[in-house]
Amino acid sequence: MTDPDASNNPMKALGQNWQVPVFLASLIMLLLGWVLAMPSSEPFDAGKRLDEARALLQAGRHKEAADELNLLQQHKEELAAKDLVGAYHVLRGDAAYLKGQVGGGHEPLLQAPSVVEQYNLARETGRTLTPGRRVRYVETLLLLGRLDGALASIDTFEFDNAADRHRLMRTVIERLQIDPARQSQAMDLLDAFLADEKLGRSHEIWAAAQVAERMLADDRPLSMIDFLLPLYGRLHLDGEQDLGSLMVLLGQANVAAGELAKAERWLMRIFEHLGKNDPLNGAALVGLGRIRLAENNVVGALEYFDDAAHRFPATRWHLQAMVGKAECEARMGALAESLEDYAQAVQLIHEAPANTVRGDIAYLSESLTSQREW
Question: pTM for this structure?
Answer without folding.
Answer: 0.78
